[in-house]
Amino acid sequence: MLLPHTDARPGPGRADRDDLALRLARSARHRPRSAARLAAWLAQRQRANPFEVTAVPFADLTGWHFAPDSGDLVHESGRFFSVEGLHVRTDRGPVGEWWQPIIHQPDRAILGILAREIDGVLHFLMQAKMEPGNVNGVQFSPTVQSTPSNYQRTHRGARSRYVEYFLEPGRGRVLVDVLQSEQGSWFRGKRNRNIIVEVADEVAPHEDFVWLTLGQIHDLLHRPNLVNMDARTVLSCLPGHAVADGDGDAGTIGGAVAESSLADGAWQPLLGVRNWLTANKAGPTLATRQVPLREVRDWYRADDEIRHRSGRFFRIVGRRVRASNREVSQWCQPLLAPCGTGLVAFVVRRIDGVLHVLAHADLRPGYRDTVELGPTVQCTPDNFTGPARDGRPAYLDLVLSDEVRVHYDVLQSEEGGRFHHAVTRHMVVEVGPDFPTATPPDYTWLTLRQLTAVAAFSYQVNIEARSLLLCLRALR
Questions:
Q1: Domain covering 253-286+339-473 assigned CATH 3.40.50.300 in the classification
Q2: Which of 86, 128, 321, 348 is a Cys-bridge partner for 132, taking CB atoms 3.0 to 4.6 Å apart?
Q3: Is the pLDDT reported for residue 156 higher than 60?
Q4: What integer pLDDT is reported at residue 247 of this predicted model?
Q5: Burial of 135 by CB count in 10 Å (0-12 exposed, 13-18 middle, 19+ buried)?
Q6: What is the CATH number of domain 15-53+106-236?
């Protein structure tokens, strides 16, 4: 059972908050080792811990079977997760009704990062973790990335290292603790506990873990597929002082990000942002109904995959895994494999000299509350070619055009524990002062300070926007 955390000292007052702000800013400016050296360390850990991921047909997916009554793909233990069917109806968007497979994982995982001051600078304990679906095998991950099925040892393997810091009260000062959603198109009602705990005492070292500053993590974000999705979502929940260039000139993008993260001068008050998001949560009709996987229309099950008749969207595939540094050394599991590279993008604009991002009220069938604040664009562009071109998302063509100034364009991985080679192109593009501030009703402008404030609460900002928020903070 997850126990409530108590701080090692009294709850944060104004002085504590100011102190944390200064410490985060100092950590964001500190880079004792280059991204190249850290990438080399990660590659060395991958060589030291060999693994093998092999495609297998469903018949050879040990421990998994299709339930005879529903056709759902389930584990023999009744734990971990299942692949079920979903029927969706909505009055928003170009498609009003569809059926799809979806992952159902009721367990709330711990995505936990330990923090500690080293030589007067706040560091974060990151893990070189292999996931079977990672496009490059091993990535920088949270200290703990574990479901109850893992840390309660349903798999009869080893206990997750350092998990006691996030399960036992009084082990440290809590800097972040919030339940956050995951991909609303691929998960049904999925949520994880995003938590950062600062400790004062030394932590037992391990060769697969390394202490990094925020500045080093920001540098790694400029390289593809090095910082995993779970690390990005946890770190995005830090206060807005965790920016790369807090002392920068507002004329540079790094300085503009810092000013937008810390200062006032928003186009609308925070209450206006909350009102916009609440109205969009209350407005659209979205009805979802769990259905047996075998009854999902337009999807077909072959010996080695479940796929859509169009060849678009995603597939469900089986994999056998052998790994030398995981809690168990071998296992089988299904993975969701997207058909194409995703794209998430924030359009940014300076309004009265302050950088604003254009956010979208994003509706997905797997969200617990219908709509969450998302990026300006969030899609798989390959799904909107040919006959589907009329349904292209708003602003997609703008983001991909030469009318914008590109500040960030890096491929980042989605979570490799459930998705196979899921890669999303992350972009931040800026438009000029002549770009209109008027938007459709499901879009709005807000500062990074406001975005950070909204992200501090559960089920308000989607995982794609949180990932982009961290990338924005890494701009210099």
A1: no
A2: 321
A3: no
A4: 53
A5: middle
A6: 3.90.79.40
